[in-house]
Here is the input.
Amino acid sequence: MQFLVHFAQEHSTFRLQELQSVSALCGVDVKHLLVTYSQLSPFLVVELPSHDAAVKIAGRCVLIKAIHRLLGTGSDYHELSTSLLSLPAVAMEPYIYGTFKIVVDCFNKKCSLSRQVIILERLSFLPFQGRVNLSNPDNTFYLLEDYGEDHNKVGDEPKRVFFCCLVAHGQRNLIQKYSVKGRVFIGNTSMDAQLAFLMANQAKVSSGDMICDPFVGTGSILVACAHFGAQVIGADINNLLLHGKGRPSRSGTNQKWRGPDESVLANLRQYGLERYYIDVLVSDAAQVVWRSPGDLFDAIVTDPPYGIREGARKLGSRKDEAKPIPPQQLQDHIPSVRQYQLADVYFDLLQFAAKYLVLNGRLVYWLPIDKSQYVTDSYFITCYVLGAKGLIILSSLVTPVYS
Here is the structure.
């Protein structure tokens, strides 16, 4: 069965990776027609085994706006009409008698109301016998026009036309629901909700998994993983942040100090996810605190500090010789920290994951690189298989995600 995946116009380099990860998680075999796909276009035609398979995939993906059952397509309306008229009767039978509505949508061009009326008149040959119901129809059909990828060369007629029936919406609603703007506990580097859910999908997080974030910060990634039913645990060297102390990061407030309810647990409790919370540890990523290596975590999902908004730190004195701490001061002592070199951060992360991930477990993280020196196939690491990667441009840096 052919379906049309309608992507959101965000993070285009991650679209196929998320689709592949989620389909594998759901046990769905997806055959996508890459010859019809471009990162600049939101449309991808795929073959799926069933309607239910499409619903499963849409029920996890945050970069998918909707998945439709593709009924006809063409380079113009004549080809579209031919395609629809050639459909076997059994293909249209489920849609003939139910109530319906038709939505006209365009990519790369605005569609006026008068043009929408003309388009709908072109579809008058369709064998629908049910009533039009705009508020709660049995079937919602979409007429999608693709005017190409060049915003400067938009023609009068579309380059591709699709007619399809809505199967399911993607999980775009999670972006607003879990927005950090309304989060109880945030910091300078709190992960955007959309990216956190994208990372959770790349990690194939599922109910009952044990997920670790060794650079947990305010817990945005843990929130996304807990949403999918995973047990979550984290660690961070920032003692004040994990204990909700110090000055708040939220702008536009007269609050001088963080409130007593600001914590990673409070963030999970805000969304009714506290039952998935194990704990967060004040811990130095350079010094592993776990008792012994073993199959402990199903996935490690993290955003290590790489110095753009927060620098990396590890325990140690900046002086050549550290003074011993008197025994009476040990209990309340806050150890000094020093710079944690970026290369060491990622080396320690890879070592940690190799020791504590289950076999075939996934490591998903952000890695900053200089895009002028970036070589696509330059990252191969012993004991790991590259699952996916994508790019986000941050001024002169490009940040790929690896899993």
Remarks:
- The longest strand covers residues 64-74.
